Amino acid sequence: MESSMQQAHTYPIGTPGQKWTEKEVLEWRDSRKILRSYQQEVVSKMEEVGEDFERIQYGELGYPSGPYPLFGFKSKAWDQSKPTVLVTGGVHGYETSGVQGALLFLKETASQYLEHFNLVVAPCVSPWGYEIINRWNPDAIDPNRSFVANSLAPESALVMQFVGDMGVEIFAHIDLHETTNSDEEEFRPALAARDGLEYFEGSIPDGFYTVGDTENPCEEMQTAIIASVEKVTHIAPADPDGTIIGSQVVQHGVINYPLEKLGLCAGFSKAKYTTTTEVYPDSAKATAEECNRAQVAAITGMLDFLKAL
């Protein structure tokens, strides 16, 4: 009874122990509010991206509060002899520095790497999530568990199609994320409630870390990314049990997940080199600008490593 009461208290929608039906999903969706503007904070900044990049609208989400056009950028001077690197941000729309960091990279830094790489950047995969500052899409589906065949999340399906239609092999893929206090305050309790499970409180690491692929960990590249980011912000220490968010720390600031098996964004491209970044925006030791710059440092750390191969 205590755990049921805890869950009922923790999340206000649904019946403890019972999966949500369409009724609860609708109740959840109706409780969301627009908190910021995708058009003003994201699309308008795309005008600042230089002429080295072509902006492509690869789809549109026809949600009632939209429509939300989806944009990607690719190198104009495409060279089939160069490796192609993919950068994705805003798969979880509430993870602000993933979106703003991708835009900052495009604006300030990306052109410096065009001598070595073709670049493809999708700065905000989930604009509805950006506006309501939430992890899910309107159907209470997590886009970052939906990078699978016949995906039920249009956010995931459309960016996969955008990349697939290019018909090129992706050499490296970096997916920009955050781990926030709201993960424990809102999103993990909501997930437990949605799935009819008991919620067990976890911990939030204070600092930056990366998530490599269990099947293809790219250890040296992760080391290079951490070293680059460390010049901008602090790296998350392991918990006393040697883990970060419950996963074993395999080197300073690095854990691994089976990316493709879990339907995570960094796994869909089947790139030779993959990583997911995790910035901690709620830290007393980091500003929003530092979080954005940490994402840029992660991208450049990866590219500098690949350039030197």
TrEMBL record:
Domain called Peptidase M14: residue spans: 34-309
Task: Give any Pfam family that matches.
Answer: Peptidase_M14
**PROSITE patterns reported for this sequence:** PEPTIDASE_M14
**Domain of life assignment:** Bacteria
Molecular function (Gene Ontology), one example: metallocarboxypeptidase activity
Q: Which GO terms describe its biological process?
A: proteolysis
Q: What is this protein called?
A: Peptidase
Can you name the source organism?
A: Vibrio superstes NBRC 103154
Taxonomic lineage of this organism? Bacteria, Pseudomonadati, Pseudomonadota, Gammaproteobacteria, Vibrionales
